[in-house]
Amino acid sequence: MTAELTGRVALVAGATRGAGRAMAVELGRAGALVYVTGRTTRDRVSEVGRPTETIEQTAELVTAAGGTGIAVPTDHLEPAQVQALIERVDREQGRLDVLVNSVWGGDHLLEFDTRLWDLDLAGGLRMFRLGIDTHIITSHYALPLMNRRPGGLLVEVTDGTASFNRTYRENLCFDLTKNAPHRIAFGLAAEVKDLGGTVVSLTPGFLRSEEMLDHFGVTEETWRDAVAEQPHFAIAESPALIGRAVRALAADPDKARWTGQSLSSGQLAKEYDFTDTDGSRPDCFGYFEDVVFGGKDATAADYR
């Protein structure tokens, strides 16, 4: 891949860490100017509680990769802050070509294998705010700027494809939160179709985020040591894979063929012929469908 996005302007909402950071960096690697937003800065830590991951760091990584990174502290639950963010992008650039709605930050609220009546209600409702309201608020203010030019791309980032999420996600509030972006993408694709825009939902597979690596007590270099504790981690992918997926989508002149669809990083790796950082092409959802749920006699290695 070359600097195929030079002159393009992107906004990655929720770019502090994980998939959001990787998508911002890959857009920068393609030459884009990327606004990166989030709540954790060098001066303030969000409720996620990971002070070593900041939007300033992400902006620096974008610039180091070959693009231009601009960090704007933003709480995407605050309409006034989001409106000010978009007004700044308009004032400084006059255009927006790519919007990635990657805001989440709700992993600390998860209670799996817990029935609704036993859930912490406040935590469950907070998930809706973090994973649904933020996306709606951001698109409300950003789409008028993006719609000025045909060819814009909106990516709704979620957890699990629409097909995979037919399996219950073991927490009602999480299940609803991660299914909503599929419907948001489907609905907005219809709303921007006559304006030349493309809207998709996109999910990574089993993501080796910073938080997941910490959970297993491993690093990106030693991640395979965690497979003994969690065998399915053998199919895990680095955040770079979904970053490369967004980059490929943004650069595709025929991306409108995907509009309204639920996509995965592994699916797009095959379509656009890119790989993860280790040269493999992990097919997480194929592995789970065939082996974990379907009982096929195969291993994760057969799906890399």
From TrEMBL:
Pfam families reported for this sequence: adh_short (PF00106)
Protein origin, superkingdom: Bacteria
SUPFAM superfamilies: NAD(P)-binding Rossmann-fold domains (SSF51735)
Protein name: SDR family oxidoreductase
Source species of the chain: Streptomyces bugieae
